[in-house]
Write a structure and sequence with these properties.
By secondary structure, the protein is of the alpha/beta class. It is 42% helix and 17% strand. Bound molecules: 2-amino-3-ketobutyric acid.
């Protein structure tokens, strides 16, 4: 379907009549869990969640509708978007970096194919309903690629335009999807006579490693820190697959959810870019192990690096520059390194395993 919006008129989703209808893909994953809870606080939001897997009971009950299905199934996605008159999409479904290196072609199909389908359907939906669709995509520090460990250790906090040479399929997929989103929102069908005004409002966050107390990640290469914490809290030994000096940027899950909601609500006029770095602190595996041992004195942590996974993390930056996110939409981490552990990670993970 061809977009038929009015030439020169860019409608802001926040000025539209009617309530918000949000589609969340990959909703049963770690971020979906927190995002559904965060969005539910607003009574007037209609939440439609979809995933290949059934949602856990606690989040299922917070959604207006849940569909078990594949994000690559274009007719299912079209049906969901049209039937629920979707105004916003949080597209979380993806194969993460470690999983994707086992099945790179499948990763491409899901990570790129799924995003492409949704962008195309959003453009067509916004045209037929005459309303913009806000499209929020989590991207990743995996879009960066350091050429050597020496570069990683000397380059400092990288800005969005730096070192965009990803090593992994996941990083390549996400970098391309960032460009696709920007293309659909700013240049879609730029030579077509009837192109009208694009009505995809695309916003993207480059997330660092995420640490959650209530859920455990799977399939990522930043999993060494959350795995270490969950093992210690549940009294299990842990062998880290990266060296002690391995450093990347991090953020806690509550801050990740806050930043997704914050960019989702930001005033369109203030967003100078479509892609923003976010992060709260930078820490090495060894520094985290020290904090874990201080809180769980019996913790058994050893370091037995896996050459291939180590190479992936060595290609990611030690830190990212978040000044654009701060300047354009007010991003500010809730906690620094020590506070993140003392105020959220340790108490929440203790509670989680006490109640389990
Ligand atoms: C992964 O490890 O693949 C993700 C990421 C850093 O995007 N957690």
């Amino acid at each position: 379907m061809i977009p038929v919006c009015r030439e020169g008129v860019r409608m802001n989703i926040d000025e539209q009549p009617g309530s918000r209808s949000v589609l969340i893909t990959g909703a049963s994953g770690e971020i979906g869990h927190g995002l559904i809870k965060g969005l539910r606080v607003h009574d007037d939001i209609h939440i439609v969640a979809t995933d290949l897997k059934e949602l856990p009971e606690d989040t299922h009950g917070l959604c207006d509708e849940v569909h078990v299905g594949d994000v690559c199934d274009a007719s299912l996605m079209q049906q969901l978007i049209a039937m629920h008159e979707v105004t916003e999409i949080y597209h979380l479904a993806a194969l993460l970096s470690s999983r994707a290196e086992h099945v790179p072609e499948v990763a491409h199909e899901v990570n790129v194919g799924g995003t492409f389908n949704l962008l195309k359907l959003s453009a067509s939906h916004s045209a037929s309903f005459g309303r913009p669709v806000r499209f929020i995509l989590p991207s990743t520090i995996a879009v960066y690629g350091m050429s050597s460990l020496a570069q990683k250790q000397s380059v400092g906090a990288v800005s969005e335009g730096d070192c965009n040479e990803p090593r992994t399929m996941y990083g390549c997929n996400k970098l391309y999807c960032e460009h696709l989103g920007r293309y659909y929102s700013r240049h879609y069908r730029s030579l077509a006579e009837d192109r009208g005004t694009t009505m995809i409002d695309f916003r993207c966050l480059r997330l660092p490693g995420i640490i959650a107390a209530e859920t455990k990640p799977t399939g990522g290469t930043s999993d060494f820190v959350p795995e270490m914490l969950h093992a210690a809290a549940s009294g299990m030994p842990y062998a880290s697959f990266v060296r002690e000096d391995t450093r990347i940027p991090w953020m806690t899950m509550p801050e990740c959810i806050d930043s997704m909601l914050q960019i989702g609500r930001a005033d369109e006029g203030s967003l100078k870019h479509s892609v923003y770095n976010v992060s709260s602190f930078s820490a090495s595996a060894g520094e985290v192990a020290d904090m874990v041992r201080a809180s769980f004195p019996g913790a058994q942590i050893e370091f037995t690096p896996d050459v291939d996974r180590q190479a992936i993390v060595d290609s990611w930056p030690e830190d990212v520059d978040v000044s654009s996110a701060h300047d354009d939409w007010g991003f500010s981490p809730r906690w620094g390194h020590e506070e993140a552990f003392s105020q959220y990670i340790i108490p929440s993970i203790r509670t989680h395993y006490t109640q389990a």
